[in-house]
Design a protein that fits this description.
Bound molecules: zinc ion
Mean pLDDT: 94
Helix content: 25-40%
Strand order of the largest sheet: 4-1-7-5-6
Structural class: alpha+beta
Largest sheet: 5 strands, mixed
Length: 160
């Protein structure tokens, strides 16, 4: 039995914050303004998994007014979400993600992100796709004011 889920996350980019995507620290003048580490890639993927399980979203599971999650490492949040999936009897078949970020270019970081996400999800990195696009100078992404990530994931019931 298969379940499919979709996730989306946006963070405002501000000076003086780190930029972390898929657990990888990216050299950037601006980083995500967030209660946690602002890792939009982990957040979108975690939301996709929770969506596939029909279990609300990351904000409900890890409220941003809870001091426990202040500056939380989102790779660890993702690992907790996949634990929830496993308890429900599901594993990740594959996931596909698109990061929308004007700068810096992410090409050199893509493989490291895929491996970090695959590690958190306990799957082979060949099952995790990370793509990066710019906003072509348009809208909040294009003006360098935001990072947005879309994610889709397929879960399957684990054979017992
Ligand atoms: Zn987020």
């Amino acid at each position: 039995m298969f379940r499919i889920g979709i996730g989306h996350d946006t963070h405002r980019l501000v000076e003086g914050r780190l930029l972390v995507l898929g657990g990888v620290r990216i050299d950037s003048e601006r980083g995500a303004d967030a209660h946690s580490d602002g890792d939009a890639l982990c957040h979108a993927l975690a939301d996709a998994i929770l969506g596939a399980l029909c279990e609300d979203d990351l904000g409900a599971q890890f409220p941003d007014n809870d001091p426990q999650w202040k500056d939380a490492n989102s790779i660890q949040l993702l690992a907790r979400v996949i634990l929830r999936a496993r308890e429900r009897g599901f594993h990740v078949v594959n996931a596909d993600t698109t990061i929308m970020l004007e700068r810096p270019k992410l090409r050199e970081h893509i493989q490291a992100m895929r491996e970090a996400l695959a590690g958190a999800l306990s799957v082979n990195s060949a099952c995790i796709s990370v793509k990066a696009k710019t906003g072509e100078g348009l809208d909040a992404v294009g003006r360098g004011e935001a990072v947005t990530v879309q994610a889709i994931v397929l879960l399957a019931r684990t054979a017992i």
